[in-house]
Write a structure and sequence with these properties.
The chain has 86 residues and is of the alpha+beta class. It contains 3 helices and 3 strands.
Length: 86
């Protein structure tokens, strides 16, 4: 069974994009080629700022949802510290 990754990408305009995949290298290549998520096409290049690895798809999807609910400052704290204080 392959690994499942949750990631945070920073777009060139300073916004963040969160997602999950089982092929992180390919996902980064797709985003930087402009064929990624529709709203990141105009914000290339993207840079990987954070990722976590999970054994199951369900764990990764659950963590992705939790990260998407975070405020911008909490996402920045997660990127810097690897966790949310509090």
């Amino acid at each position: 069974m392959g690994s499942n990754y949750v990631y945070i990408l920073e777009c060139s305009d300073g916004t963040y994009y969160t997602g999950w995949t089982n092929d992180l290298e390919n996902r980064l290549r797709v985003h930087n080629s402009g064929k990624g998520a529709r709203y990141t096409r105009s914000r290339r290049p993207v840079v990987l700022r954070y990722y976590e690895c999970f054994e199951t798809r369900e764990e990764a999807m659950s963590r992705e949802y939790a990260i998407k609910q975070l405020s911008r400052s909490d996402k920045q704290q997660l990127i810097v510290n690897g966790r949310i204080e509090g």
